[in-house]
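Long-time lurker. I teach an intro course on protein structure, and each term I like to show students one example going from raw sequence to a predicted 3D structure in C-alpha cell notation. This year I'd like something fresh instead of my usual example. Would anyone be willing to generate the C-alpha cells for the chain below so I can use it in lecture? Attribution to the forum is fine with me.
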Amino acid sequence: MRTLPLLLLIALAACQAAEPEPTTATPEPPQADNTTASAVERAKSLHAVDQYFPGTAKDSLLANMVTFIYKRPTTAINLDRTLPQFRSYYLQQLPQFTHAYHHMDADSMHWFYVIRPARSVAGEERGVGGRFRTNKALDMLEFEEVFNTRVMPQQELWAKGLDLFEHLLAHGNVDDHPQREAWVEWPDERLKYDLDKREWRYVD
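-- Reply from a regular --
Happy to contribute to a lecture. Here you go:
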C-alpha cells in the first residue's frame, strides 16, 4: 500500500481541523466603559428584586414577565399566552432567565433589567430593559420592553446592562445613551414595541 507524503498528510489534517468561516461577520461589541465588577456587585444588592417581591413572589413575578418577553407557544396568539393552559410552558423557561436589576419608583412603576436566552452567532444571551405596573395578584396591568441589548457575553450583559438600566431610571428610555447604537439592538428602524400586543413588531 502506497503511503502519502508526510507534507500532504499534514496539510490534509489541517484542513479537517479548521473551523468553517461564518457566513456573516458580527462586529465585536465595545467593552463596558467604567462599570467595574465591584459596581455590578453593589448594584445586585441595591437593585435586588427581593426588596419588592420576597420569597416565591419573585418567581411568580418573573414567570409573568417571561410570559411577555419570551416567544409564545405555537398555539397561542398575542394576549392568549396568559391563559392557564400555557402557564407550564413559561414556568419551564425560568431557569434560562436572570432577573438582574429591579427598581420601583414613587409612582409604583416597576423598572427591570433581565438577562434572557437568545440564539445568535454572537452568543446565546441578551439583556431586556423595561417597565410594568402590577396588581396584588401580580397580573401585568401595563408592560413594556423599552430596549433589547445586542447579544453579548454574560459579564458584559451585567456591566453594560447596569449602565443602560441606570440611564433608563434617570430618563425613562435609552434613546440618548452614548452607547445606544453599539449596545442596543432594538428598537430600531425595523422593530418597534407594540404596547397593545405586548411584543416586538416589524414596522409597516
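Some talking points for your students: Residues 1-33 have pLDDT under 50 and may be disordered. Residues 63 and 91 are 6 Å apart (CA to CA).
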